[in-house]
């Protein structure tokens, strides 16, 4: 939040690099534009949102990498070998020294402020194409909801800021979790009503042909998919089922694809992706951080898959075969997450990968869980079996509501591992975190206490805001 004074410059007035031209397709606003003029034309207003997606794609932030890397380390998915003054696990809970988790917080609120500025600027403009205005508002509200989803599930109560007035950011109190969820839901419902059902080009108006659609702008389907997740987390089972069913039933756009193709650019399983715009020798931060070659225990390649995750895969599970790899380093075999393989420029060019934030498999698992909670045995089995069939496995043997819920959690563990903190959030929302972490935490060099399911508010942020208090259990 210490950078909020400069956000308009960063997102509205910045120059987009050559590597981003394909997605943007429009010239960015000239750097002489002001906040009052950037929303005066269709082109410059659209460039604000395009610039936001580019910034998310090319920098470490809560959406791009931090939720995946740090929450996977917090949970039982990764075994960390990176050694410094304090173990990385301990650093998750040392709010006074952990610059990485402070960055998790600050990047989230930076992105939220970006969205708030865009929402107010677009709403106040009377010069934009009416259809474009609705689309851009929907995109900004969707992205704001996505950021708050990560914040509330990581920290619990958080400041709920929906204004572009930066002065209130240093005077904000933490809102109740229920209030944050209400805001997320309202944003997504509004986004759902405003967003196109087609995937749109860089001008945010022209639809792509379905067969070649770049799935890198939020759509009605992305808002619906995220709503399904929010309803599930809120235990609104019928609404979760209904929202997930809307996405699953759109077979013209979405389908489960072979495991080897799930995370590729424009995969039909993807609902919303981030385009890879890095000019470095990798396509995604996931590939850079997880793919092991000659070393482990460095800041760039700190971890391998934990024994607990490796043992969770059934024999012949194609997810293990396609989404994990093995590297032999100093005579020791290390299994690593391999969903994203393009950790070199050559791989990124030959088989492009986009970071997938929402995908169809999750919608099947959301619906399976919601159906099990409503005692719909056949429906839950059908959804679980669809995921298992793609993995090369037979039908589930579960045939009771409790058994099916256990089966869903098992499938989520091996289907969604090392993707944006799913496992950590699942353990918390289902009340399983204490049982799992009291066994796992000693292997990480710590002692589990229940309060640790919420990470500490960064001390730096508390120092900036006299109304911001700390989560229970932390100094």
Fold and architecture overview:
The protein has one domain: Serine Threonine Protein Phosphatase 5, Tetratricopeptide repeat. Helix content is 49%, strand content 7%. The strands form four sheets. The protein has a two-stranded antiparallel sheet with strand order 1-5. Strands 2-3 form a two-stranded antiparallel ribbon. Strands 4-8 form a two-stranded antiparallel sheet. With 475 residues, the protein is mainly alpha-helical. A hairpin with a 2-residue loop joins strand 6 and strand 7.
Topology:
Elements: H1 7-12, H2 21-24, H3 42-58, H4 62-74, E1 78-80, H5 88-93, H6 99-124, H7 130-155, E2 158-159, E3 174-175, H8 177-194, H9 220-233, H10 237-248, E4 270-274, H11 285-290, E5 303-305, H12 307-312, H13 318-323, E6 324-329, E7 332-337, H14 345-350, E8 355-359, H15 360-373, H16 377-390, H17 401-415, H18 422-429, H19 433-440, H20 459-464
Antiparallel strand pairs: 1-5, 2-3, 4-8, 6-7
Helix pairs in contact: 3-6, 3-7, 4-6, 6-7, 7-8, 8-9, 9-10, 9-15, 10-15, 15-16, 15-17, 16-17
Beta fraction: 5-15%
Distance between the termini: 21 Å
Mean pLDDT: 88
CATH architecture: Alpha Horseshoe
Query: Can you tell me the overall shape?
Result: globular
List unreliable stretches of 5+ residues.
1-33
Radius of gyration: 22 Å
| N-to-C order of helices and strands | HHHHEHHHEEHHHEHEHHEEHEHHHHHH
User: Can you list the strand order of the major beta sheet?
Assistant: 1-5
At the first level of CATH, the class is Mainly Alpha
Query: How many H/I helices?
Result: 20
Number of strands: 8
| Class computed from helices, strands and strand pairing | mainly alpha
Largest sheet: 2 strands, antiparallel
What is the share of helical residues? Answer: 40-55%
Count of the domains: 1
The CATH topology, please?
Serine Threonine Protein Phosphatase 5, Tetratricopeptide repeat
């Amino acid at each position: 939040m210490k950078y909020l004074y400069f956000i308009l410059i960063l997102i509205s007035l910045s120059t987009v690099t050559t590597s981003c031209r394909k997605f943007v397709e429009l010239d960015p606003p000239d750097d002489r534009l002001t906040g009052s003029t950037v929303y005066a034309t269709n082109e410059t207003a659209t460039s604000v949102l395009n610039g936001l997606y580019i910034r998310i794609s090319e920098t470490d932030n809560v959406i791009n990498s931090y939720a995946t890397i740090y929450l996977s380390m917090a949970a039982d998915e990764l075994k960390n070998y990176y050694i410094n003054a304090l173990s990385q696990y301990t650093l998750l809970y040392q709010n006074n020294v952990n610059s990485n988790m402070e960055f998790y917080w600050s990047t989230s609120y930076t992105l939220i402020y970006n969205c708030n500025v865009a929402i107010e600027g677009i709403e106040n403009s009377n010069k934009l194409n009416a259809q474009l205005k609705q689309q851009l508002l929907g995109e900004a509200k969707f992205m704001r909801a996505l950021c708050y989803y990560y914040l509330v599930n990581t920290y619990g109560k958080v400041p709920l800021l929906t204004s572009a007035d930066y002065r209130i950011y240093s005077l904000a109190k933490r809102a109740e979790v229920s209030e944050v969820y209400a805001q997320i839901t309202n944003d997504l419902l509004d986004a759902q009503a405003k967003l196109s059902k087609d995937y749109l080009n860089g001008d945010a108006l022209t639809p792509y042909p379905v067969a070649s659609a770049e799935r890198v702008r939020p759509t009605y389907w992305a808002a619906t998919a995220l709503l399904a997740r929010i309803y599930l987390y809120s235990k609104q089972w019928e609404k979760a089922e209904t929202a997930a069913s809307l996405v699953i039933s759109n077979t013209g756009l979405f389908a489960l694809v072979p495991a080897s193709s799930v995370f590729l650019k424009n995969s039909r399983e993807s609902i919303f992706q981030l385009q890879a715009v890095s000019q470095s020798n990798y396509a995604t931060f996931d590939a850079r951080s997880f793919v092991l070659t000659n070393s482990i225990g460095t800041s760039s390649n700190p971890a391998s898959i934990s024994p607990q995750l490796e043992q969770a895969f059934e024999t012949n599970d194609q997810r293990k075969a396609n989404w994990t790899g093995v590297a032999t380093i100093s005579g020791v075999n290390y299994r690593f997450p391999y969903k994203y393989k393009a950790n070199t420029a050559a791989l990124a060019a030959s088989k492009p990968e986009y970071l997938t934030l929402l995908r169809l498999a999750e919608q099947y698992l959301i619906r399976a869980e919601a159906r099990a909670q409503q005692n719909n045995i056949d429906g839950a089995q059908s959804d679980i079996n669809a995921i298992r069939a793609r993995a090369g496995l037979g039908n589930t043997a579960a045939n009771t509501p409790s058994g099916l819920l256990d089966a869903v959690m098992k499938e989520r563990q091996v289907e969604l591992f090392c993707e944006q903190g799913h496992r950590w959030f699942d353990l918390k929302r289902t009340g399983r975190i204490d049982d799992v972490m009291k066994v796992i935490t000693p292997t990480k060099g710590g002692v589990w206490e229940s309060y640790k399911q919420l990470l500490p508010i960064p001390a730096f942020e508390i120092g900036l805001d006299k109304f911001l208090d700390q989560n229970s259990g932390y100094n």
